[in-house]
Design a protein that fits this description.
This protein has about 725 residues and is an alpha/beta fold. α5 (about 140-155) packs parallel to α7, α13 (about 335-350) crosses α19 (about 530-535) and α15 crosses α19 (about 530-535).
Amino acid sequence: MKKAGFHSKEREYRKRAAELVSKMTDEEKISQLIYKAKPIDRLGVPQYNWWNEALHGVARAGVATMFPQSIGLGSTFDEDLIYKVADIISTEARAKYNMQQKYGDRGIYKGLTFWSPNVNIFRDPRWGRGQETYGEDPYLTSRLGVAFVEGIQGKDKKYMKAAACAKHYAVHSGPETLRHGFNSVVSMQDMYETYFPAFKSCVQEAKVEAVMGAYNCVNGEPCCGSKTLLKHILREEWKFKGHVTSDCWAIRDFHQNHKVTSSPIESASMALNNGCDLNCGELYSMLGEALREGKISRKRLDDAVINLFTTRMKLGMFDNGQDNPYSKIEYSEVDTDKSRKFNLKVSQDSLVLLKNDGLLPLDISKVKTIGVIGPNANSIDALKGNYYGTASEYVTVLEGIRNRTKGKVKVVYSEGCSLHKDKVEPLAETDDRLAEAKAVCAESDVVVMCLGLDSNIEGEGGDQSNYCDGGDRITLDFPGRQNVLLKAAVESGKPVIVVSMTGSPVTINYAEDNCSAIIQAWYPGSQGGNAVAHLIFGDYSPSGKLPITFVKNLDDVPSFTDYSMKNRTYRYFGGTPLYPFGYGLSYTSFKLSEVNSDKNIIEKSGNITITGKLTNTGKVSGAETVQVYIESGIKGAPKYQLKGLKKLSLKPGESKEFSLTLTDDSFGVYDEEPKKIIRKGTYKVYVGTAQPDSRTTELTGHKPCVIKVECKKDETLYTPKSLWKKD
């Protein structure tokens, strides 16, 4: 990955934007602050719609490569892969934009400003939008978020390929039903230790072009009008140079739901004054009146418009395109054979093998009949997740198994049950497909049971299709009659492989106790069915790792509305999970050796380099992720935290050396003030292929290597000086 060069021209673009804005009337300026910006013909400014989506592929604008949902991208634990995913997305984005410009289509979802990635922390398994994130860990989310932003924005020296947007800033993770009026009460320690790091990394490392505010309040301030979040932290503390957009119609929540203002004009003024440049909504149309009444200043109005036009200048929208390499990308670059092939690899890398008693991989020569059963077995919805585009081809699990076996094995199918209702046919009796499923089991040598969820059950609040709790989940169990179906399959006496297709954790205790194998497939993208089939038959070795903890039951989780990190995520969880963060099985085996550090003393501004060798000791090729965790032993701090990762692909018998650098920041933890401090004492550095918990050891039989390092004295690394100043 290379840093984008276009940022060196920031001053030039801003100067050009300021010159253009200086020629506008107040009315014209205000017209540019609403997401569907009007044309200004006399100045050669065409209309522009800022709203576009690219969470795991160019969304809502026709055909594009549809990668696995973000939570599946998170399970790859692979920064380089995510960069390549985002690079393909932005290539297709430019190709589609160039085509749409040619034919005069400037509508919604047709621009180059993409409101992705979602780098919120998946702190609660009930959250319907957790599927949009990279999981529960701040470090993993930071690394993948940075890679995604850099892939979207490109590395040209002069122009930005497309604009990324880190959302939803900040401290947002449900409940969806309450988001328009909810106040997230959060300690400064949790804010800086957990909720901020990914945003900060996207801003300071990847130079993300935009940040989107969340719907909720944080400690009494609405995020899209928060002086603390937008002015003090984002602009002053982190030195953010891009533009800020509201979430859609979030500003009207100020007076309608949060009750922090008394009128629409006050809400619009509050948002603009505190740093929100772009209104996804309509309230900024009142800024003319606000300006006349002195509620906003002309300088702040100008700054907001300049911020937006600086982005458009970076994208090359006011140049002739002759020296812009991205303007030359043809529509033929959309949905290519190469991108489809790569999409299959990404889907393969995203799958997590949670259990295998030795049944997998299946030997195709020893199986005569496979039963494929379940509501997600032939479901396209279960491939897509949310915020999706249109793939030119969708391969379901049933189709993938048929493709892979090609008539060598008989494949028998039953839907088995509805995804969430008690019957498939409206006038039928309960369990109207159960007998058929039992017949399929009886006929089969092995059963592939495809269960789970889809975006009809979990997603964003307000999505009309969500039948559940505003998009969130009220239980972690498989919904409807799926568990009845699973039990019937197990009781048939045939080996059962569970393919769990969800965007969030499910309690699959029964499957763990009774089934031969469990594959967590997430929403695996348009090639997901082929990826699952190839895994089942051993065409590749699974390498995915869980980016979120799978708890045993909902009683292990605090109240949904409690934003304290106590007992949340692997970093603070006090119980024993069913499947831990960072866990995933393989078809081969790996051994770590020669693990060392170049020093055993932690110093401010100093680095410690961890080196070692990873060997594939098995019989097939495979990839494994070296994971480094640090335990401080400090009261109130996380018990340990992921602070380094490196994914390596190895042939049987092959060894590769690795090197990972831990900075002083890797060892720092926040106190309650909050200051980031390296405390005097002994730290443990765990180097392994999973987190250093007893449940992982129980499941894998492996313990990580442990290196002890010392800090001789307390060292303050970071003090947020601008954070809570009163003005």
